[in-house]
Amino acid sequence: xxxxxxxxxxxxxxxxxxxxxxxxxxxxxxxxxxxxxxxxxxxxxxxxxxxxxxxxxxxxxxxxxxxxxxxxxxxxxxxxxxxxxxxxxxxxxxxxxxxxxxxxxxxxxxxxxxxx
Length: 116
Description:
3% strand, single chain
C-alpha cells in the first residue's frame, strides 16, 4: 500500500496534509442529506437573463427549492431527499468525491397538454 502511494507521489502529500486525505480516503462520514445539498448538486441551463423564459425558470427554481425544504421537514411523506436523489441520479447518497458529472435540470417550457 505504501509503495503504491509512493509510486503515485501521494505518500509525501499524505504526510504533509493528513487531515485532507483522512476525510477523502478513510472516513465515510454519513450525514443526513439536506435540501441545500440537492439545490447545489444540480446545474440549471437558464435562458437569457431578462427573457420571459428566464422569469418562468426563476419561479420554477424557487418552487423547486421550497419543495425540497418541505421534503426535508417531512411534509411530503413518504418522499425523502434520499429517494429523490436516487430517482434523479441513480444514487441514494452523494459519493464522497461528488458525482463525476453534475446532474442537470431540464426546465420544460411547453409541457405536454392532455384533454379529457
